[in-house]
Design a protein that fits this description.
It catalyses: uridine(54) in tRNA + S-adenosyl-L-methionine = 5-methyluridine(54) in tRNA + S-adenosyl-L-homocysteine + H(+). GO terms for molecular function: RNA binding; tRNA (uracil(54)-C5)-methyltransferase activity, S-adenosyl methionine-dependent. InterPro entries: Methyltranfer_dom, SAM-dependent_MTases_sf, TRM2_met, U5_MeTrfase_fam. Belongs to the class I-like SAM-binding methyltransferase superfamily. RNA M5U methyltransferase family. Keywords: Methyltransferase, S-adenosyl-L-methionine, Transferase. By secondary structure, the protein is an alpha+beta fold. The chain is about 35% helix and about 25% strand. Strands 10-25-26-24-23-20-21-22 form an 8-stranded mixed sheet, sandwiched between helices. A 7-stranded mixed sheet has the order 13-12-11-14-15-16-17.
Length: about 650
């Protein structure tokens, strides 16, 4: 009898991701323990491991021993109501083994493929792209609003813990707003379109894992040899119908093409609010001569003219290649226009923007208008204001503010976006804009030198990972910047950036030589319905550090209400713990007094754990030295006494 022998079974992972849970910071959280007990005892799911990726998350990764149990858990927790919350479960495929991905079991001398998960491919596409597709839109907004509130409650707690001088200021703000938050959290702005709102989609050419045939759709996972597994696009309610029908027609073209289908890479579709469509066909970088490329272009043009009935006004062709940082800044990598218009026009408030294949623009056109309105409201610019737009992309935010302010300076890494911004400024008759291509960290100093003496409002729309600490430090030292608008496209929120802007003292409690930017208001915008993410627009204002440190609170904060200090803490005059406090030479009693003083000072400066550890190490070693010295003296004294006749 031949038994199936598992290969690298310790590396196999059958996971699901459960989102919509209350935020937790430890697996020992009582509410989280109650949830885990429920899924194992009530639902009878054999969960063998639970893991979270980061403290403060509202989701959890659950691991199961077999794919069958994984599929059952995915089905039961798909839309499970628990304590008034609608939970969402999604499939996790990223942790499958990277070597021999499809080879799992050895039966005799034959290698068998790992059995596929018994979940419809369309369901996998939905779970990976629009996990909220089955939830009512009002419920989606409620969940995203609660997510934002919990996120900023956590942020406020971190500020008070890591920046003790800000505790009194936060308490004052809470009383002013009559809220549990020190920042004004506005109601979430809903999307004007709930379905069919996307203006851009990228289809991949690959293999349909159900039929093992060539297909065009959304990528589900990758295989060892670089071939993409794609799922059908029919079920996606966030995409306009022309995008879906064009994907099906392109799939038929790829299947019937005479050469190897692997030369095809992507089909990128852009669509404006007027229904005009721009199509870009991208092929992989193969060793093709000029004649072969010409034949491919002719085939694409002939196919499009004979088969496309949608309102396609532009058809582009591009060869995919590796782009270096120098390419992005120094050269413009453009697709080749085969026929039609060079641009499609998108309306943004009172502006007309020309959109090219490489233009950076929000995926929701009407949502982009709402974002521009919120930024304009928070920035509150006038004819004396200079707007500094960092990571400006194609200049959408800067251009909407240009006619209301004195001048606009935009900085962006990719030169193609800068060229789009300059072109659109010229089309709309805007002459007070300057757009600069380059790495923001490299050219910011020279730009700020030119803006000295101006009333500057900074707008930032950084990448999902946030910005560097050096850039934050540079902006804080630029005294002309009074207001700061931070557009966060990542619903996880880069807390380190916000703490760097808000910090009053460093971790060793020395005051920072620049005034902080403190958050006053947060506006969530639902840019992408049916997804987990929402955009957050934060308004920061510069405060004088002396005014913050002089803030008095009639009611002591909870963090320090139970602590009694012998001395008042002033971060501008505080001194580090040095030899001014030394253990006395009286042995253990002196050591305890020394540790007690160190602990009191550490609590005052908000560094109880670190300084307590250091104090214990210092005091313990010095106490041993004192005790040893006393013992030696006592021994000598006893010896001399015993030796006397």
């Amino acid at each position: 009898m031949n038994f199936a022998t598992p290969v690298n079974s310790d590396k196999l992972r059958y996971k699901i991701k459960v989102s919509g849970l209350p935020r937790f910071y430890s697996l020992l959280d009582p509410l989280l323990q109650e949830f885990l007990k429920m899924i194992n005892e009530e639902l009878r799911l054999n969960c063998i491991h639970a893991r979270y990726s980061k403290k403060g998350n509202a989701w959890l990764y659950l691991t199961f021993p077999t794919e069958t149990e994984q599929a059952v858990a995915l089905r039961l927790l798909k839309k499970y109501n628990w304590k008034g919350r609608s939970l969402i479960s999604t499939l996790v495929t990223a942790d499958t083994p990277k070597t021999n991905m499809n080879l799992t079991y050895v039966e005799g001398n034959h290698v068998a493929k790992r059995p596929r998960l018994d979940i419809p491919l369309s369901e996998q596409v939905l779970m990976s792209t629009i996990p909220y597709h089955s939830i009512e839109y009002e419920e989606q907004l409620r969940k995203k609003s609660e997510e934002a509130r919990i996120l900023f409650q956590r942020f406020g707690t971190i500020i008070q813990r890591k920046q003790p001088p800000l505790a009194e200021w936060c308490a004052m703000r809470k009383r002013q707003l009559n809220s549990d938050l020190a920042f004004e959290l506005s109601p979430i702005i809903p999307s004007q379109k709930v379905d069919r709102y996307r203006n851009k989609c990228e289809w991949s050419v690959g293999i349909n894992p159900d039929s093992d045939s060539v297909a065009v759709g959304l990528r589900v996972k990758d295989s060892m040899d670089g071939i993409h597994y794609v799922g059908p696009p029919d079920c996606l309610r966030n995409l306009p119908m022309p995008m879906i029908t064009l994907a099906k027609k392109f799939e038929d073209f790829v299947k019937n093409y005479s050469q190897d289908w692997r030369i095809w890479r992507n089909m990128i579709i852009r669509m404006n609010e007027d229904g005009e469509v721009m199509v870009s066909i991208v092929i992989n970088q193969h060793l093709l001569d000029t004649e072969q490329l010409s034949n491919i272009k002719c085939s694409i043009s002939e196919w499009s003219k004979n088969n496309i009935t949608e309102n396609v006004v532009s058809l582009y062709f591009q060869v995919h290649g590796e782009k270096t940082l120098a390419d992005c800044i120094g050269t413009t990598i453009e697709a080749e226009l085969l026929w039609g218009q060079k641009y499609i026009v998108e309306k943004l408030l009172n502006l007309s923007l020309e959109i090219s294949p490489a233009t950076y623009f929000r995926l929701n056109s009407l949502g982009a208008e709402e974002l521009c309105k919120v930024v304009a409201d928070l920035a509150d610019v006038n004819e004396n204001t200079t707007v500094l737009d960092l990571f400006c992309g194609s200049g959408c935010l800067a251009l909407t503010l240009a006619k209301k302010c004195k001048q606009v300076v935009g900085i962006e890494l990719i030169k193609a976006n800068i060229m789009d911004a300059k072109r659109n400024a010229e089309i709309n008759g805007i002459v007070n804009c300057e757009f600069i291509a380059g790495r923001t960290e490299d050219i910011l100093d020279s730009v700020l030198n030119k803006l000295k003496g101006c009333n500057v409002t900074v707008i930032m729309d950084p990448p999902l990972t946030g910005v560097s600490t050096g850039l934050v430090r540079t902006l804080r030292k630029f005294k002309e910047a009074i207001n700061l608008i931070y557009v966060c496209s990542n619903h996880k929120l880069p807390l380190k950036n916000l703490l760097d802007f808000s910090s009053v003292v460093r971790y060793w409690q020395k005051p920072i030589d620049s005034d902080p930017f403190l958050p006053l208001r947060v506006v969530p915008i639902d840019m992408c319905p049916h997804t987990l993410r929402s955009e957050l627009v934060l308004h920061f204002k510069r405060f004088c550090v002396d005014d913050i440190l002089s803030t008095k609170n009639d009611r002591p904060s909870k963090m320090y209400s139970n602590r009694k200090f012998k001395t008042k803490f002033n971060p501008r005059t505080s001194e580090t713990v040095t030899s001014s406090i030394q253990p006395s030479a009286s042995g253990v009693g002196g050591l305890l007094d020394y540790l007690k003083k160190i602990e009191e000072r550490a609590y005052q400066e908000g560094l109880a754990k670190g300084l307590e550890r250091k104090a214990f190490q210092m005091g313990y070693s010095r106490g041993l030295q004192c005790a040893s010295a006393n013992d030696d003296d006592q021994f000598k004294k006893n010896s001399s006494t015993n030796s006397d006749p």
